[in-house]
Every structure is written in structure tokens, then in C-alpha cells.
Amino acid sequence: MGAGDFMRAGKKAKGRRSAIPWVVLALWVGVLALASPFAAKLADVQHDRVTDYLPASADSTRVARLQEQLPGGESTELVLVYHREGGLTAADRATAGEQVARVAGDHALTGDPRGVPSADGATLMYPVATNEPGTDEKKRDAFVEDVREVAHSEGGLTVEVGGTGALATDAGKVYESLGGPLLYTTVGVVAVLLILIYRSPVLWLVPLAVAGIADYLSMGVAYGLNQAFGTTVSGQSSGIMTILVFGAGTDYALLLVSRYREELRRVERPYDAMRAALRGCGPAVLASSGTVAAGLLCLLAADLNSNRGMGPLGTVGVLCALVTMLTLLPALLVLLGRRVFWPLVPAFGSTPKVRRSLFAAMGTSAGRRPRTVLAAGAVLLGALALGALNLPGAVKQQDSFVDRPESVVAMETLAEAFPEQSAQPIDVMTPTGRAGATLAAIRDTDGVADVRQGRTGEGWTEITVTAAAPPQSTAETATIEALRDRLTGSWVGGPSAQQIDLVDTNARDRLIVVPLVLVSVLLILIALLRSLVAPLMLVAAVVAVWGAALGLGGLVFGPVFGFEGTDPGLGLLSFVFLVALGVDYGIFLMHRMREESTRGADPVAAALTALRTTGGVIASAGLVLAATFAVLTNMGLVQLVELGFVIAVGVLLDTFLVRTYLVTSASVALGRRVWWPGRLSRAPQTEPRRPEQPGRPERQTEPV
Known about the structure:
Number of strands: 8
Strand content: 5-15%
Order of helices and strands: HHEHEEHEHHHHHHHHHEHEEHEHHHHH
């Protein structure tokens, strides 16, 4: 073969390589065309019914499902509360009667509503219920809003619509904000941060657009999972899926773009530079997404429906982000060429401008006295974790809203007006043949103020119990537990029983899911780093971060935010997300440290070089991820605000304290032992290189 043949073969190979990005782009157009019909249907299968959040095997869940099978289906219960300071007048009572009669005329109510006056004569409540909406949430919301329109305040008479149906409607309004508003806010936050990070009028658009495509793809896949396996899709799980797509996906993009920029200075053709970048950071990105997916899939072992449904949807979001960032993003960057980095274009053969490197200086300070830095950091995290002792107890249903909606105000009015009994029913489902004996047993139970028999069907009879104590009080909890002990073969549910089951099930889920998460993440780290010490160090670090973040929550939830309680699932969900996502940054750092060690660098030099080269990426990624989860703090439910706060604070602690100082210090202190029992731990020990002095480190000025 002559020189001409070699040149022609080279041109053909170059042409084939140039066509690959176009092929990838065409494939993605086809994928989106296939996914589009399914993505648009995700909202149709999203539900926020009680059974979508309750424990799968709890008594209260059984009651809710049995009620759906009774004649008329699920019952929507409301309480119309009429109140006037100083006492209701005859005209007020007449107005109340007229409004309730109009509601009864417009809707098929179960039973005739009767007014119950308070002892002081200032409050009158009318419990009403209907089976019209069934399990249709839109019909339920329409019914509640129609009742609110009819039962309106006038002339100093205050009218509030509360009850379980009104609470569900008000909560549904919050979950609706997890759709469009959450997406727009997340996109806006990520866009601003990418502009600041890249300092380019064009570059930020590429990863943001790819993240949007990943989110759209994840919606289609989530719908497919729902149709194929019946996966629960709730407002909470779909909202967090969106946050994970943009947060994790942007992290992967930051790492890839940073490595691609680095390779463009060493490699002439963008295609070849991208191949080198993918070889360099691909394993770290794959391992990172693997740890997140493995951690989230451990939620399948949870008994709580909301947690178990979040596992698959979160995994779908992370994997869709991974696939798009490792295929579509590289193709777009190669097609756009170096000009996408304008005005800071990385020319072939050039070197970045020299300036002081913050992360090199931080690494140097950690490298001088690694044991001192490590001990001080451990003490600080431990002190912060003590704040978890100040976490308030489980949040009550009426305290779960950031801003008090009408349904909560109604419950507060009832609690003050009727201190001698609960205005929130306890629902009992008993076999029809034993209904009489069950009624007698309930009447003989301490703490029961009233009991009424309701619907019968499918071999079951519904019994409504009114407790003598306020909702979700210690006394009412004792009454519910006494009923469950006495009523063998019957099920006790209702809003207060649901809260009891949520607390108990979350405690059980923590005992099962937490060890699974730790083991799965540890195994992935061992396989990636080929070491036992380094993975144990990273896992210990993220667990410490989780404890410190919870501690900070304990210091601010009550005193600063004014929250009356903590969501029972906060500990488990924050653990899963912080451990799975926090290990990402450890992977970025330790993978680069291992890469430097395989090139012959001594432990100190490897640790400081890894921090200098990945510090900017980790800081940028941490800021983006923390900002995306911080968006949840603007939502209207206490559980979302608390979860967003703990995860955002934890990510920031992990990014700027643990990865920068503690992991680097521990790696320097352990030396080659950090890779034990792998091959690198047995390499000949060399004299550690003195850390560079501040002001004289290897420098970097370009944005990541």
C-alpha cells in the first residue's frame, strides 16, 4: 500500500468519525419522537391519593382501600365551620342552615347534615360527606371548591371549610406546583449558575438543553414503568425526579466539559479530544450514577408507598441524565467545535492563564497538618450533628403546610371550640357479621365520645368513631391503639391513624433501607477504586455529613422556620439522597487521585493534584445540586421544605468541607494505605513531596 492509499484510508476514517456525532443526533431525534406520546401522559397517571403515600401493609391503608369498595366508593368528608366572636346570632344560624341546604341540594350527600353547636355558642359545625367524587381527585377538588363557594363568610360571620377532603384538596394544590412551577424555577436556577460558571453566552445553553431533553425522556420512561409494573407516580416523586435530572445531569455535564476543555488544549480535533475526555471521566460518571441508582433502588424495600414509588422514578431520572450527558451532550459539543467556548476558547497547544488557585491553596493547608485538619473537621461535624437532638417530633397533619390554608384554619377553630372531642373521625372497617359486637366493643373503649354505623358492602361495614381528645394528641393516639388491640379482625384507620402508621413504618423502613444503601454504595466504590480503605473513608464521610445536615435542620426548623414538627420520612429520604449523591464528589476526587497515583505520583502529590484539578468541578457541581434541591424550600409543604433544606445544606458541607479538607487530609495522612489492599498500596514508598506554598501552586483560571 502506497502513501496515497494511506492518505485515502485516513480521509475515510476521518469522515466516518465526523459522521458519528450526526448519527447520534439523529438517533436522539428518533428516541424523542418515540418518547413524546408517553411523556405527555405522565400527568394522567400521577395521583396523590391517601393510599399513594400510606404504608402498603398498615391498618389505615387497608381501611382506605376497603372504603373505596363500599357503595359509592371513597367518601369525601368535609366540615363546614361557622364562627362569630362573641356568639352566633339567630341570623347566623339561619344563614348556616340555608348554605348547608344548598350544598345538600347541589350534591348527593350521605345522610342529612346536622349542626353541632359549641358549648360557648360561638361556633357551629356541619359535617357533610359525599361519594360523588369517588377516587377521582379532580372531581373531589371540584366538589370542595363548590362547597367553599356556597359556604362563604358574610357580615362578620366567618365560614371555613375543613375536613379530610379539604385538606387533601389544599395539599393537591401544593403538589400541582411541583409540575410546571418547580420545573421553571429549577431551569432558571441552573441557567444562572451555568452562566456564572462557564462565563460564556453560548456554552451554558448546551448542557441545560440536554438536561431538559433528559427530563422529557424520563417522563416517558416513568409512564412506561407505570403501565408495565404499576409503579406509583405521585406529585412528590415526579417532582424529585425532575430535580435529580437537572441536578445530577448538570453535575455530569460539568465534569465532562471540564475534561473536554482540558483535552482540547492537548488534542487538535474536537472529536479526538472528546474521546479522550470520555475515557478520562467516563468511569467516574458511570460509577457516580451507579451509586445514586443503587441507593435509590434500595427504596424498593421500603413499606411506605411514597418512598417505594420514589425509588424507581428517581433511578429513571438519574439514568436518563447519564445517557443523555454521555451521548447527546458529547455529540453536540463536537459538532459545535471550539467556538462553543467563546470568548474563552481553548486553542490547541495553548496553556491557561496563570493565576492563584483557591483549591491548590486549600489543599496545601490541608496537606501541611492533615491529622489536625481531620480532627478539627470531625469535631465540627460531630458538634453540628448534636443539633438533631433538637428536631421537633412528628409533624401533625394540620401543621404540614407552610402557609395555613382554609382547611387548617377550620381545624384550629374546631379544636378551640370543641376541646372535649375530636373533629376528625376515626374510621373502622369490620366484617358485616360482627358489626354489632364491634359497635359494642368500641362504645366500651376509653376515650370514645361517639360512634356511628355507616355504609355496608362487599362483606364489610364502615363505623365512624369520634374520640374525646383533640386530633393527633397523645390521648387520641392511646384511643386508637386501644381500639386496635380490642378489635380483632377489624381495621382501624382515618387521618390520625394514618399519621401513627407513617411514623411506625418510617422507623421500620430505616432499619431495612439504610443498611442496604450503605452496602450497595460500598460495593460499587470497592469495584471502582479497587480498595477497601478509600471506600470506607468516603462512606463514613457522607454519613457524617448526613448527621451534620440533620443537626443544622434541628437548629433552624423550630426556632427559625417556626415548624411545629418534622416529617417522619425526613431521616430516611435525606440519608438516601445525601449518601448516594454525596459519594459522587468523592468518586470524582478519588478517581482522579488514583489516576495520578498510577502515573507514579507520591500520595501527597496525588492528593493535592486531584484536588487542584477537580476542586473547581466539584465546587460548581455542588453549588448546582444544592441549588436544585433548595428549590424545594419554596414549596408549600413542610416535608418538602425540610427535605430540600437538609439535602442542600448537606451537599454544601460535603462540597466545601468534607471533600476539600477532610477527604484530602485523610488521604494525605494515610498515604498509600488509602489504597489497601489494592496494588497501589504495595507500591514502593517514596519520599513525600513537600506541599506547594500558597501562591505557588499549579494554577488554573478557566471556568470548569
